[in-house]
Amino acid sequence: MKPVVRFAPSSTGRLHVGNVRTALINWLFVRAFEDGKFVLRIDDTDTVRSTRAFEDGIREDLTWLGLTWDSTFNQSDRFDLYDAAAVRLKKTGRLYPCYETAEELDRQRKLQRMQNKPPTYNRAALNLTQEQKEAYRREGRLPHWRFRLSGRIVTWTDCVRGEQSVNTGSLSDPVLVRGDGSYLYTLPSVVDDIEAGITHVVRGEDHVANSGAQIEIFRALSDHLPNFAHVPLLVGKDGAVLSKRLGSLSIHQLREDGMEALAVCSLLARIGTSDPVDAQLSTDALVKEFAFSKIGRAPARFDEDELVLVNARLLHRTPYSVVKDRLDTLGVSGGEGFWNLIRANIERLPDTATWSTAIFAPMAGQIDDADREFCRAAAECLPATIGDDTWSSWTAELRQTTGREGGRLFMPLRKALTGRRRGPEMAAVLSLLGPERAKGRLHGEAA
Ligand code: GLU
């Protein structure tokens, strides 16, 4: 099998965790096959709301996440194809003109509701005579075009949801072309899926009913029918749908907030699946272990705090070579030794700069009045050269001479030498500071 998948964002906004999860699932699935293809389709038939800037942003975000594509195209370049498909559907009578105004349709739906009937389109337009249609046109009404569903039950075996059926008799005939000739999403998507030979349509489960209608359009246009996988939507940790907060959960924002691309992928690939969430240093393991059968039917919970934890765990494992260039850009010195020392103490890469300043820039540590004498004594017995065991021999000596133990012994030293109550291993901090600066800080000087 040569799977071909597509990710089809609309260029009417930036990518957020919800649509990136769909992109990622497509990508993980297809990357397990040597000759699998990932197509990036930009859904920009809505020429008013789609912008070039959003499109560039989408490409930038996917690139940053490492979700590479093998080919890409814009729907706005393909109106000829959609026109040709519409002509074919009109010829066979599957696409028919309707002249109702939005107000008329609305009134109709209200009436149906009052009569306890489902608010589906009543297909009145199918009974219009040629004269009636012409009369509407003379009135200046432009037709919109609906696809005539078969009224039968459409079934498919969904890669995530198993056996599915949609009764097209319970759906309104979908509008494929608006009065102004513009296309809604439904037809262009099918035309492109046929044309690109998409083998698996992987998307959110909000498209399930859509798939029922689209399968009928596939059948009306070609012999090609892809497989379908509908993945549950993301919810917040409180179980509420994320849609209102998606702005703050844009990939762009998460990146600005210091989240690593691999942390985002590690989390989004695994939430809502039977595999545990873990920070991955590459997407290889995520690809290897991906299976549609592991995706649960319940909504997947996205929790920003969990993302921060995964981000921290990822950084704790990240080797220096991977972050070197970014540390240089952040102006962080100290090389590999410094990175290995502090990486367990950061949640976000930019936090490194705080530690770099704390250790390499002149700084007066924190000394409480009650510890002033103790710190002075500590400075006095600090050896002139610092080796691997200096910290343990020095603190052992201080324990003996001052009688201090545990937190009373170590905390004043940590605060005086780093200005903080928590942080990296002190033996290494001491050797990075060197004897002169350590003494200065213990005396309360900016060293
Ligand atoms: N542009 C559509 C959306 O974002 C694509 C849906 C699909 O994958 O077919 O909902």
Give your account of this protein's structure.
This protein is α/β, with parallel strands linked by helices. The protein is about 45% helix and about 10% strand. The chain is built from 18 helices and twelve strands. Strands 1-2-3 form a three-stranded parallel beta sheet. β2 (about 35-40), α2 (about 50-65) and β3 (about 70-75) form a beta-alpha-beta unit. α9 packs across α11 and α17 (about 405-420) packs across α18. The model has no long low-confidence stretch (mean pLDDT about 95). Glutamic acid (GLU) binds near residues 8, 9 and 43.
In brief:
It is built from 18 helices and twelve strands. The chain has helices at 17-31, 52-65, 79-91, 102-114, 130-138, 186-195, 208-221, 251-256, 261-270, 284-289, 304-317, 320-330, 335-342, 351-360, 372-380, 390-402, 406-418, 426-442; strands spanning 4-7, 37-42, 71-74, 95-98, 144-147, 153-158, 162-167, 175-177, 200-204, 227-231, 234-236, 300-302.
